[in-house]
Amino acid sequence: MFVPHTITVVEAAIYAKVFSSLWDGSMRGQSDKQLVFIYLLCHANSVGMVDIIQGKVADDTGLTEDVVSKAIRELMEPDERSRTEENEGRVLVPLSNGRDWGWQIVNYDRYRAMRNEDDRRLQNRQAQARYRDKHRSASNKPQKAQGEAEAEAEGEEVKPKDLSLQVWKDEFEASFWPTVHPDRRQAKAEALAEWMKLKPRSQETLDLVCDAMEADVAGWAKERTEPKYIPHARKWLKDRRYIDHAENR
């Protein structure tokens, strides 16, 4: 037996990130509108444009064209209960006034960027694993000696459990930078300079800082914090924001 609603929700899980806020926000209790919006998310292009006729939406979701049209009209209306103020809370805006299909999903970049803490932590762990598999030889004695020599040249003491300068620098690229909020991946060189000041350069420090950034990004996404209020990575590191999370470990 063909069940359109079930098939569409499964497709959403594969092609679009759907957050629980869809069910406790201003669309709460409006299943037809939610279904239409999920469908549009699944079929949007890389910049959030959906160029598809309403009849196609109706055929694929199992809804009538009247229900689809009503849902889309409501998604294009101002919503004073919306969590975002852009476009007066509208979810969709039309691509062209000359036809009755084709829409831009408002804040689509934000939808794509929002990933929960588990997603980010998994990505971070996978990046670390790939790096260590690729550079497993970095732990041999000659390279360790080279790392110690670099540290000594800077007047630093390398503790037995510390990572070498080169490995620590590489971990910035492989482990920390991917966790930074997408809208704040700027001033990379300045952020790296702050990263190199972190002490001790141990696996424990690496995990603490990366996990703390992941947690903060997840919090900003959950609260829908405007990017202008989110610190750049350099400032986040300089202000030692990760210390706030150390007590909870």
Question: What order do the helices and strands come in, and which of them pair?
Answer:
Layout: H1 4-15, H2 21-24, H3 31-43, E1 49-50, H4 54-61, H5 65-75, E2 92-94, E3 103-105, H6 108-113, H7 117-134, H8 141-153, H9 165-176, H10 188-195, H11 203-223, H12 233-238, H13 243-246
Antiparallel strand pairs: 1-3, 2-3
In short:
The chain is mainly alpha-helical.
List keywords for this structure.
249 residues; mainly alpha; 2 domains; 3-stranded antiparallel sheet; 13 helices; 3% strand
How much is the radius of gyration in Å?
A: 23 Å
Number of helices: 13
Structural class: mainly alpha
Ends distance: 49 Å
What's the domain count? 2
Roughly how much helix do the residues carry, as a percent range? 40-55%
Strand content: under 5%
Major sheet attributes: 3 strands, antiparallel
How many strands in all? Answer: 3
**Overall geometry:** elongated
Strand order of the largest sheet: 1-3-2
* Helix and strand element order: HHHEHHEEHHHHHHHH
Average pLDDT metric: 76
Which residues sit in consecutive blocks of at least 5 with pLDDT less than 50?
Answer: 1-14, 138-145
